[in-house]
Amino acid sequence: MRQYAPPLTLTPTMFDLVADISEQVGRLSAVHETQMTPQLRRGNRIRTIQASLAIENNTLSVEQVTAVLDGKRVLGLPREIQEVRNAFATYEAMPHWRPESRADLLKAHELLMHGLIDDSGHLRQGGVGIYREDRLLHMAPPANRVAELVDQLLAWLAKTDLHPLIASCVFHYEFEFIHPFADGNGRMGRLWQTLILSQWRTVLAYLPVETVIREKQDAYYAALSAADHAAQATPFVEFMLGAIKRALIQTEATDPVSDPVSDPVKRLLLLLEKHSPLKPVELRTHLGLSHRHSFRANYLDPALAAGLIEMTIPSSPKNPAQKYRLTARGNAVIRVLGGD
């Protein structure tokens, strides 16, 4: 019997993106394979988890996610806090799973959705659709076909000769099309693509692609919809390859391993070395910044994720009295920068 293969048209755009990404990964791997610090890995993982959960309407910030994982008290919805703990445990367990294994897929879902739904770790038994703002975007196949479709997809993944970059994107789309679980399909699809990529190049286990998807969430859903209408994964594969490339560019630009810190973070650290602690509005004033989102995206969040700064009131990230100060790691980076 002929093996199932997901419909796909290979395009010049895909080949160009694969070539660009492979070159970027080569540069990143040369540094990261031997020098990537535990703090940086953890920072990237925190950004990944926060962004992936934010796509699913979790409201916790990078600071709050960091505090939860540090065991600190956070003012937030119990379900959202549970989602963070589950996601971190799941990503940490990722190296032990095989991408082509249905048993491992179910174990991952059980861990990811533990305490959140009754049937975590089990394929769905009812119909399900993808909705956005009360609008149906996709009606998944009926429940009685899910097990067969999942097994076909995993068998294809085990034997495909497509480049892992392309194969991971195809899997991501096909997984979302099947929607095999009652809940958690989006975060599972992103997790499993990361698993596939990490087995091609280890450094990609810590690439926060989810942050790009979060930034381009409308385009993400549009790509899924375009693939549905085209009856093949091609539009989604091109989108996801572009997201991977963008995530690599951002990592190269801000990575404190290959380049101690980005210029915005360096300015923030040097400011806090002289004036600490400071409130966010005070930081923006000293830095001459007026745009709150840009300040958080380029200065505050990267420094927090890398463990270079910390909150003075970590149990209440949105407290009006909240201030930020350098950590021991931040002080060490300052010394490297010659800030003393």
Architecture overview:
- This protein is mostly helical and 340 residues long.
- It folds into two domains: 12-254, Orthogonal Bundle (Fic-like fold), CATH 1.10.3290; 263-337, Winged helix-like DNA-binding domain superfamily/Winged helix DNA-binding domain (Arc Repressor Mutant, subunit A).
- It contains 15 helices and four strands.
- It has helices spanning 12-35, 38-55, 62-69, 78-93, 102-112, 146-159, 164-178, 185-200, 209-215, 217-230, 234-254, 263-274, 280-287, 292-305, 328-337; strands spanning 129-132, 135-139, 309-311, 324-326.
- The strands form two sheets. It has a two-stranded antiparallel ribbon with strand order 1-2. Strands 3-4 form a two-stranded antiparallel ribbon.
- A hairpin with a 2-residue loop joins strand 1 and strand 2 (135-139).
- Helix 7 runs antiparallel to helix 8 and helix 12 (263-274) packs across helix 14.
- Mean pLDDT is 89; it is low at 255-259.
Topology:
Blueprint: H1 12-35, H2 38-55, H3 62-69, H4 78-93, H5 102-112, E1 129-132, E2 135-139, H6 146-159, H7 164-178, H8 185-200, H9 209-215, H10 217-230, H11 234-254, H12 263-274, H13 280-287, H14 292-305, E3 309-311, E4 324-326, H15 328-337
Antiparallel strand pairs: 1-2, 3-4
Helix pairs in contact: 1-11, 2-4, 2-9, 4-5, 6-7, 7-8, 7-11, 9-11, 10-11, 12-14, 12-15
